[in-house]
């Protein structure tokens, strides 16, 4: 058993496996995705029962902390485009907005459920 362990350690050393760097990249991506706050042109987007309610264009960052790059993708380009432009519809249409954070050779995703109701009451 000890011989097998030594062989595995030797393989890892000679192949240049760097577990530390991989872990750091994954941690950075996870942290950057967790720090995203959806905002629109008016400020932070309100969240009700897990759904973000939008009525103006979203401000979607292209980069985050720790040198993480973001790519945004909408499940319905008509309502919310990949660049955050919101086009209100005559009826409520739910949209899933997915952001993929990448750093180095790794990537992770986070999803936001968006609704753009056909009516909103604005309070002062």
Task: Provide structural commentary.
By secondary structure, the protein is an alpha+beta fold. The chain has a domain at 38-119: Immunoglobulin-like, CATH 2.60.40. Helix content is 24%, strand content 32%. It is built from 2 helices and 9 strands; from the N terminus they run ααβββββββββ. The strands form 2 sheets. It has a 6-stranded mixed beta sheet. It has a 3-stranded antiparallel beta sheet with strand order 2-1-5, with no helix packed on it. Strand 6 (63-64) and strand 7 (68-74) form a beta hairpin. The protein is elongated. The model has no long low-confidence stretch (mean pLDDT 84).
Overall shape: elongated
Straight-line distance between termini = 72 Å
What's the CATH class of the domain at 38-119, please?
Mainly Beta
The major β-sheet equals: 6 strands, mixed
Separate helix tally: 2
Briefly note the CATH topology name of the domain at 38-119: Immunoglobulin-like
Strand order across the biggest sheet?
Answer: 3-4-9-8-7-6
Strand tally: 9
CATH architecture of the domain at 38-119: Sandwich
- What order do the helices and strands follow? HHEEEEEEEEE
Q: Percent of residues in helical segments?
A: 10-25%
Q: Structural class, from secondary structure content?
A: alpha+beta
Mean pLDDT: 84
